[in-house]
UniProtKB/TrEMBL annotation:
Belongs to the glycogen phosphorylase family. It is an enzyme of class 2 (transferase). Gene3D superfamilies: Glycogen Phosphorylase B. Keywords: Carbohydrate metabolism, Glycosyltransferase, Pyridoxal phosphate, Transferase. This is Alpha-1,4 glucan phosphorylase. Phosphorylase is an important allosteric enzyme in carbohydrate metabolism. Enzymes from different sources differ in their regulatory mechanisms and in their natural substrates. However, all known phosphorylases share catalytic and structural properties. Allosteric enzyme that catalyzes the rate-limiting step in glycogen catabolism, the phosphorolytic cleavage of glycogen to produce glucose-1-phosphate, and plays a central role in maintaining cellular and organismal glucose homeostasis. It comes from the Bacteria. GO terms for molecular function: 1,4-alpha-oligoglucan phosphorylase activity. CDD domains: GT35_Glycogen_Phosphorylase. It catalyses: [(1->4)-alpha-D-glucosyl](n) + phosphate = [(1->4)-alpha-D-glucosyl](n-1) + alpha-D-glucose 1-phosphate. The keyword DNA repair does not apply. It holds the Pfam family Phosphorylase. Its cofactor is pyridoxal 5'-phosphate.
Length: 801
């Protein structure tokens, strides 16, 4: 079917007729998409079955990656690429006068995630499959993924996302493997002989139906599984309000919570978490039991990884299954559980740490609550032995305290590994945030610096740069991304530099065309494309970027002799619908864009563009076109960042704080090839401890700061002088929690250096290529190998080409 372009064309046309009931001439792009999608899924299915068969036969240890989010992005072209049939398909379609790109536009962009955490999970799946590692994802099949963002008069409006509207060619519903999940009710205890038995009665049952999606490795035969659970009514009882029961159950997988690094604490979210965990564990244990009889050996065959604390109920749920159903003693079950589960922490922001009020938790999950109480009591008793009399320390470390269940504490106590996502983040966990736990369990703590899949973020997103690299150093790096370093020998070759410049230019043209279409703004291809794309959050400091642009505007207006390298400032960001401040910053970016872009003189040299509805598919057009990558979080607050790596891999230079993985990027490429500025993490944490920061002093002493802050409230932007008062207040009245004013001068300085550096074209191109050549370290293949060896103890399976 895909062996050559003619046989492809033939089967494609035949399949189009049988699937859509029309001839090629009458077929729409969407007909063609569904036809091709189904052909590819069918092509995958035999490898998928073989992989599952092999895993069963070999009966080696497998990892299950539990995540409340998988931000997959479109799959058609990635699957074609990984299967090695993209060219055949492109050639065949070309003879029918169809561009693969046009077909791809018909595919919805599955956004079952918010940002970094969900996208990391998707990159990890790609690397697991490519490395032939037996690893599968477990998540939720949200009917509505992350909302679609519309901008109306400069304000964000949210529309429900509808990725399933036209069906999903990649999923396979498996009703025969459905399981039941219980909520509410109460627990009755009784003796059976002399052991205490717990029975859950009066519970409400929800059916969890799995939808499996294939995860295709890159040019290997491995096809792993992403299993997404759908909530459905289990069975209708006689005295039941059928409609409300149906509504309540289906609500569980209706939508993704749109808060990134923020805990809303809603009961529906807790239901989602337990629904994910309980159905996944039942399914994992079922497949374990097909090949094994001794549940006491579970941890030799199964590793369960929890992506942040959202699936931390895996710990008490596994205890429940082992104790209540399998009949293990508490100590036996605890041994198996702690040796099975491992946990990644993704943030130290206090507002992201999950704490569930007992009054919500206990009625919804009565047995799970009992088990957590038992875990807590035993843990506190151990602490008491270790720290006799230190009740304050114990209260601080307890899993349940002050009416709250602390999920991070549960995850640490109940797992064998706790990792941070960049060196500095892991160090902060060990030495500060989780120091008291590190003192008790030093051997559990480790670092696994994040990575991204170069197959999506370079091969798929930037075929032009991919070809240039292949022409320059061959193709080994594709399978061994660390070999991108071979490019370093060539970064001074004039022709390599020139070709890179052409690739960048072409990608800037493609993006400029999109901007013209969508925003109606004409941008200068020769200007610096300076990009900040990520969720909108105070700690990521989009506001610092905005204040710098306001400062530039003022300088250009005031000083007719001021010369500046032209720049296009590009933003993309979604704000959580309930995050008032973040939405104000979006409005501010739009007001600033209006001012700048409509000023006849200023708009000659700078432009401001906000790209609506930032998402994976848009990101694939943005990263390849960027010259400058804005990674300007308050030091210590961004655990890692992964966009920073995507920019680097596409030859953008970073303007960044010494935060997250920016530090390791700097260590890789050298201090001279990155523009760092601002407070260090140590300095920030010290200010936070001693409370000596006074943002008002910076307002009084720096005229540039005073001017831009005054402009927020003096009608400079709009008739409504109150519009941006809350932003001004955050900086002055609320003492600028994220040190925007403290870092302002340093940021202005470094940005001036960026402008000057860009004028040395040759050197800039060299630095861009140095970034690309060192980006191999940040492939998620490296990250996943480290998880496989250092945490999961799993090995690649003998899948032959
Ligand atoms: C999320 O996207 C991240 C952390 C969280 O606790 C939640 Br909830 C969502 C992000 C971090 O902010 C990034 O710094 C990090 O790169 C990413 O997770 C992946 O580790």
């Amino acid at each position: 079917m895909f062996s050559n372009k003619d046989s492809f064309k033939k089967s494609f046309l035949k399949r189009l007729e049988s699937m859509c009931g029309k001839g090629f001439e009458e077929s729409t792009r969407r007909d063609q998409y569904f036809t091709l999608g189904n052909m590819v899924r069918e092509y995958i299915s035999s490898k998928w079955i073989d992989t599952n068969e092999l895993y069963r036969a070999e009966n080696k240890k497998q990892v299950y990656y539990l995540s409340i989010e998988f931000l997959l992005g479109r799959l058609l072209c990635q699957n074609l690429l990984n299967l090695g049939i993209k060219e055949v398909v492109e050639e065949g379609l070309a003879e029918l006068n169809i561009q693969l790109n046009e077909i791809e536009e018909c595919e919805s962009d599955p956004a079952l995630g918010n940002g970094g955490l969900g996208r990391l999970a998707a990159c990890f799946l790609d690397s697991l499959a490519t490395l032939n590692l037996p690893g599968h994802g477990y998540g939720l099949r949200y009917k509505h993924g992350l909302f679609d963002q519309k901008i109306v008069d400069g304000y964000q409006v949210e529309l429900p996302e509808q990725w399933l509207r036209h069906g999903n060619v990649w999923e396979v519903r498996k009703p025969d493997q459905a399981v039941e999940v219980s909520f509410w009710g109460r627990i009755e205890s009784s003796y059976e002989g002399n052991s205490l038995i717990f029975k859950h009665v009066g519970e409400q049952k929800v059916l969890a139906v799995p939808y499996d999606m294939p995860v295709v490795g890159y040019q290997v035969d491995t096809v792993n599984t992403l299993r997404l659970w759908n909530a459905e009514p289990a069975s209708f009882g006689p005295n039941q309000d059928v409609l409300s029961y149906k509504r309540d159950t289906e609500a569980i997988t209706d939508f993704l919570y749109p808060d990134d690094t923020h805990d809303e604490g809603k009961i529906l979210r807790l239901k989602q978490q337990y629904f994910l965990v309980s159905s996944s564990l039942q399914s994992i244990i079922q497949s374990f039991k097909k090949e094994n009889s001794n549940i006491r050996e579970l941890h030799h065959y199964v590793a369960i990884h929890i992506n942040d604390t959202h699936p931390a109920l895996a710990i008490p749920e596994l205890m429940r299954i082992l104790v209540d159903i399998e009949g293990l003693t508490w100590n036996e079950a605890w041994h198996v559980t702690t040796n099975t589960v491992s946990y990644t922490n993704h943030t130290i922001l206090a507002e992201a740490l999950e704490k569930w009020p007992i009054y919500l938790f206990k009625p919804l999950l009565p047995r799970i609550y009992m088990i957590i109480e038992e875990i807590n009591e035993r843990f506190c008793a151990e602490l008491w032995d270790r720290y006799p009399g230190e009740w304050q320390r114990i209260e601080h470390m307890a899993i349940i305290a002050h009416g709250l269940v602390k999920m991070a504490h549960l995850a640490i106590v109940g797992s064998n590994s706790i990792n941070g996502v960049a060196k500095i983040h892991s160090d902060i966990l060990k030495n500060r945030e989780m120091k008291s736990f590190y003192d008790v369990y030093p051997e559990k703590f480790n670092n696994k610096t994040n990575g991204i899949t170069h197959r999506r973020w370079l091969l798929k997103a930037n075929p032009e740069l991919t070809n240039l690299i292949k022409e320059t150093i061959g193709e080994d790096w594709v399978k061994q991304p660390e070999k991108l370093i071979d490019l370093k020998r060539h970064v001074y070759h004039p022709s390599v530099k020139e070709q890179f410049a052409q690739v960048k230019r072409k990608r800037k043209e493609i993006l400029a065309k999109k901007i013209a279409e969508k925003n109606g703004i004409l941008v200068d291809i020769d200007s610096i494309f300076d990009v900040q794309v990520k969720r909108l959050h105070a700690y990521k400091r989009q506001l610092l970027n905005v204040l710098h642009i306001m400062y530039l505007y003022n300088r250009i207006k005031e000083d007719p002799n001021y010369v500046i390298q032209p720049r296009t400032f590009i933003f993309g960001a979604k704000a959580s619908p309930t995050y008032y401040y973040a939405k104000k910053v979006i409005k501010l970016i739009h007001s600033l864009a209006d001012k700048v872009n409509n000023d006849p003189r200023v708009s000659q040299v700078i432009k401001v563009v906000f790209m609506e509805n930032y998402r994976v598919s848009l990101a694939e057009d943005i990263f390849p076109a960027a010259d400058v990558s804005e990674q300007i979080s308050t030091a210590s607050k961004e655990a890692s960042g992964t966009g920073n790596m995507k920019f680097m891999m596409n030859g953008a230079l970073t303007v960044g704080t010494l935060d997250g993985a920016n530090i390791e990027i700097m260590e890789e490429i050298g201090k001279d090839n990155i523009f760092t500025f601002g407070l260090t993490a140590q300095e920030v944490l010290k200010y936070e401890e001693n409370g000596r920061y006074r943002s008002m002093e910076y307002y009084h002493h720096d005229l540039r700061i005073r001017q831009v802050i005054n402009q927020l409230t003096n009608g400079f932007f709009s008739e409504d002088e109150g519009e941006f008062e809350s932003i001004a207040d955050s900086l002055l009245v609320q003492n600028d929690q994220y040190f925007v004013l403290r870092d302002f001068a340093s940021y202005i300085d470094i940005q001036e250096k960026v402008g000057i550096a860009y004028q040395n074209r040759e050197k800039w191109l060299e630095q861009a290529l140095i970034n690309v050549s060192h980006s191999g370290f940040f492939s998620s293949d490296r990250t996943i190998s480290q998880y496989a060896d250092g945490i999961w103890n799993i090995e690649p399976l003998g899948v032959k080409m």
